[in-house]
Amino acid sequence: MAHSIVTDVCEGVADCMDACPVACIDQGQGKNQKGTDYYWINFDTCIDCGICFQVCPVEGAILPEERPDLQKVN
Questions:
Q1: What residues make up the domain containing 29?
Q2: For residue 74, what pLDDT is reported?
Q3: CA distances for 37 relative to 9, 44, 54, angstroms
Q4: pTM
């Protein structure tokens, strides 16, 4: 099961994208409700390694489960 980035919690730090070994994290288009950039995880590519979850400095921005209802792709 893939991890999920909660769009409206993400602050666009991008530590997750830099650390991802399979490049499954992409930047969303525009801004989230907080007015910051955000990222999203491609569920089909994610290998569930958890590195993104470990390196993200924003509490609650990444969940260790697949939650398409909380993650906006574009």
A1: 1-68
A2: 81
A3: 10, 22, 20
A4: 0.93
At 55, list the tokens.
């390196």
> Exposed, middle or buried by CB within 10 Å (0-12, 13-18, 19+), for 29?
exposed
Q: pLDDT at position 1, please? A: 80
Identify whether 31 is part of a domain.
yes
CATH of the domain at 56: 3.30.70.20
> How many other C-beta atoms can be found within 10 angstroms of the C-beta atom of residue 41?
24
| 6 touches 70 (CB < 8 A) | yes
pLDDT tens, position by position, 38-64: 999 999 999 999 999 999 999 999 999
